What we know:
The chain has two helices and five strands, in the order E-H-E-E-E-E-H. It has helices at residues 23-33, 91-98; strands at 9-13, 42-47, 53-60, 63-70, 86-89. Strands 4-3-2-1-5 form a five-stranded mixed beta sheet. Helix 1 (23-33) links the parallel strand 1 and strand 2 (42-47). The longest helix is centred in the N-terminal third of the chain and has 11 residues, at 23-33.
Amino acid sequence: MLSQQTVRHVYLACGSADLRKSIDGLAALVQEGFQLDPFSACLFVFCNRKRDKLKILQWEHNGFWLYYRRLEEGTFPWPEQKTGTPMQISTRQLRWLLDGLPLNQREAHREVTARTVV
Length: 118
């Protein structure tokens, strides 16, 4: 199950990725291509060229999780940026993306940090 409780950052691999790669190939891409630590408390999200499939790589305790999502209809609203460039987003934006919504939701409630109870 995708656990976002311990996630520090979420990185999208902008552009398309070769989803034939499995854990080792994606972890090498994170480490060598993005200069990031695949063993950190982060989620690394990759999408195919047709934008109907994605993989999420996550390290947890003593091994990797590899999540795979395939849409039967439609596409993910994947950001248009330079291929191979990681883009940092929030876990909230990841939920939007997985639900088929754009990363910048104008109608969403803004995040509030409460200080006291009224």
